[in-house]
């Protein structure tokens, strides 16, 4: 894991830019849609485990991580429903993010920053902005949010188009 804060911020910005680019493109709703979020989350878990081997993590930081992950899932619900979904003439399902999808991503990121500052402060811990722990956990946060969005999108399709959606979320493509 890289411990240079500037490099971590650049890496996170690059990942978020890639995610936003993918969100606004027209893409097929594939059965393997959860693989990407699992990979991102797995990288995050690896970063977190490496970080925790060498650092003491304060209780406020752990609480902020839990609250942040709950927010990641909660905000994925309206974000998934902000996606335009349709079926083409061949029966394939497609999705594309709308401007509201980007708004929900902005809400998520602002909420994440607020939680990483406010929760440790509520525990009486020193708050220094973007911490090394935040750098170690951001990929877990993004992976959980994307996985929840994929599951909610699939749920939305199955609920809105009963009997028309045969395959669901899986790791296989």
From TrEMBL:
Q: Does the keyword Membrane apply?
A: yes
- The name this protein carries in UniProt is DUF1453 family protein
Domain of life where this protein originates: Bacteria
Q: Which residues cross the membrane?
A: 6-21, 33-52, 58-77, 102-123, 129-152
Instruction: Provide the alphabetized UniProt keywords.
Output: Membrane, Transmembrane, Transmembrane helix
